[in-house]
Amino acid sequence: MVTILEVDQNKKKFVSVRWKLISTYLLLILITLIVINLVICKTVFNIYIEQEKNNSFSKANIISNRVRHQLSNDRMDEKWVQVSIDDYSKEINSRIIIVDNSNIVQLDSHNSFLGEKFYHDEIKAALRGENSSGIYNFKQSGRVMYIAVPVILNDEVVGATFLSRSIDHIYYEVRHIWRKLELISVVSMAITAIVVFFLAGVIFRPLNDLKYTINKVTQGNFKEKVHVYSNDEFKEVAEAFNMMISKLEEVDNQRKDFVANVSHELRTPLTSIKILSESLINQDTFDQDIYKEFLIDIDSEVDRLNNIISDLLVLVNLDKEKLVLDKKITYINYLLEKIIFRMKVIAKQKDIDLNLKLNEKIQIKIDEDKIQQAIINIIDNAIKYTDIKGTIEVELYKKDKYAIIKISDNGSGIPEESLEHIFERFYRVDKARSRNTGGTGLGLSIAWEIIAYHGGIIDVESQLGIGTDFYIKLPLKN
Ligand SMILES: Nc1ncnc2c1ncn2[C@@H]1O[C@H](COP(=O)(O)OP(=O)(O)OP(=O)(O)O)[C@@H](O)[C@H]1O
Ligand SMILES: [Mg+2]
């Protein structure tokens, strides 16, 4: 249930990544377009204004040239001057004002300032002999451009020509260009959004495959694999995921095998007990010897069941994630002497010579009980798989960074192809023989896990019919 929920969340995340990509692209494009459009409009505006100004300057200069004699001789009231300036004013669509060098208006195409003093920054500059211009915004008449040029006669400034002209059409023109650019921007953003939408679909398709496979794996189908044909990060994720599925499959198979093995191992002694007890129940006569014999068999099967269950419990405890080892500094020498003393009793039953060779005193930090169990499991094997009157040598020495406990026997040996399996749970080389000796195939896997928990390893060398050497290697320093 939880997994389905997670898969659903993944789906949400997937969609949002697509939209995040689109919105990021759109935002970037929007900012870029706004900046570009502003620059374009500003440049066009400046070009228009510059053109307008130059145009007006040359027109004002033409007027100045026409009227300079009249202005210096005080003959501005001549009819032709009035008429031609009025006509020209209409022609160039500007108000024309001409002032003498005392700022008095000598001619006004609108006639309203005639004879009055007319001050303006532009006129002041023109009377100093400079061309001058300015842009103003009036509520009633809108945006206007003022320009003024000097009227010069015989190198002397005799007055100034002033032009005032509406430039609203320039603003209108620029606004029109801005609208066109806006339209182009909206269209290009829409195209970008569509392209990114489909592109994101292609880019994130591997995620869809991954989601599909996760769903399959969630349903227990470990055969499903993610296929990514691109050569990018998604491929790496897919490969890592496929590896994870393989590992999960392996673990699942191990679990199934383990349950099957446990059931099988428990069933064998139970079947024997059932057969033995049924035969006793079905006996017509009471034969004490037979009863005793059968009960001894039942007793040994119960022992076997007990052994299997206690081994399984040891394994389960070792499997617990946070296994806490009770580590103490221990002399391996004394530990080995104690173990050999106990095991000699068992070895004696098969007339096996069990010897201990201690080369040096070695002290390391271990969980004594657990290490003892591992060593016993291996010596127990040596005794079990060595014939009567055999010899077992146990030796302790240091090599590299390890304390090594070597257990050698001259027993049956292990075939080469079995060597890599003997540490697996329930693995036995000769099932029939092991069963006779009471083995379940758990002893070595328990020993392996205990040594691994201590940071060590177990090596094995064996020759069929000659004997086997086990090396328990424990790091001297943890
Ligand atoms: N010293 C040895 N000589 C020959 N074969 C061995 C030796 N030690 C282990 N083996 C083989 O490895 C197998 C696995 O050993 P392991 O100790 O795990 O299981 P077991 O001895 O059969 O059962 P138990 O769980 O009671 O120990 C054994 O069944 C045996 O075939
Ligand atoms: Mg064993």
Automatic annotation (TrEMBL):
Enzyme Commission number(s) of this protein: 2.7.13.3
Any GO BP annotation: cellular response to phosphate starvation
Domain Histidine kinase: 261-478
Cellular compartment(s): Cell membrane
A UniProt-annotated Pfam family: HAMP
PROSITE patterns: HAMP (PS50885), HIS_KIN (PS50109)
Main subcellular location: membrane
The protein's name in its UniProt record: histidine kinase
Organism: Anaerosalibacter massiliensis
Lineage: Bacteria, Bacillati, Bacillota, Tissierellia, Tissierellales
